Amino acid sequence: MTASVPNLNTEELRMYAKMLRLSNLRANCSDIIHRAQIDKPTYLELITTILKDELNTRQKNDLLRRMRQAKLPKNCDLDHFDFNHSAGITKSQLHQMRELVWLDQMYNVIFMGPSGTGKTFMTAGLIRDAVMKGYRALFMTMESLVNILRMKDVSSSAMNAYNSILKCNLLGIDDIMLMPMKKEEAVAFFNMVNNLHEKTSIIITTNKAPTEWVEILQDEVLAAALLDRLLYRCDVVKLTGTSYRMENRSGFLTMEKEERL
């Protein structure tokens, strides 16, 4: 006669599962035992199922963790990219970029163009694609990156964030060269790019042409050295078109009819 579930020492099983970090078995051991009593699998089938479910759970949790670490904006699925509001990249080119072969080859990408033409959306979307395929990828604004570079030598959290950048496979930097940079910030940014050179792929969005970077960095030699590393293996995508945000803007106020006299 088969023992019933209450007679089994499930608490001991949960303890072992916790010690071995088998989170799925720990959370669902009663259900797993109950299902096995009904389906009556062989020992080999039962063990295989338990390990397979555990692996699936770990992969799902790992994906969720990397998605959180990527710090992506909402709604950045490139399946929904609207080509009607952006010119400068074709569907076939975007499809080629989404295959991420260039990422394994350590190429960089620069999206250049006015606001609202899809630079940020495509960068975040490619970061999302990379995370979905198992890469470590990060998305951040130039402002947040500069704050990390400024504080990394005095703040442990900033240093941890900086080390995460150095370990990632793909880094997306939004709105680079939007604001003037102090000399020490520009040097720190160059040093980071130099450390990532030919180790990590970088995607940059900017509305400034590379020739204008000298004015932002206030150092011609530093700008040339930075561009030399970024453009060495790089595709520059120049986007044009109307602003998606302006053409699809909305408000929250309800327009009331004018009162009659």
Strand count: 5
CATH superfamily of the largest domain: P-loop containing nucleotide triphosphate hydrolases
Mean pLDDT: 86
Give the number of helices: 12
Distance between the termini: 87 Å
CATH class placement of the largest domain: Alpha Beta
Verbal overview:
The protein has 261 residues and is of the alpha/beta class. The chain has 12 helices and 5 strands. It has helices at 10-19, 23-39, 43-70, 91-98, 101-104, 119-132, 142-151, 156-167, 183-196, 213-217, 220-231, 244-247; strands spanning 108-112, 137-141, 170-174, 201-206, 234-238. The chain has a 5-stranded parallel sheet. Helix 2 (23-39) packs antiparallel against helix 3, helix 3 packs antiparallel against helix 6 (119-132) and helix 7 (142-151) packs across helix 8 (156-167). The N and C termini lie far apart (87 Å). Residues 1-7 have low confidence and may be disordered.
Q: Which tags fit this structure?
A:
5-stranded parallel beta sheet; 2 domains; alpha/beta; 12 helices; 53% helix; elongated; 5 strands; 261 residues
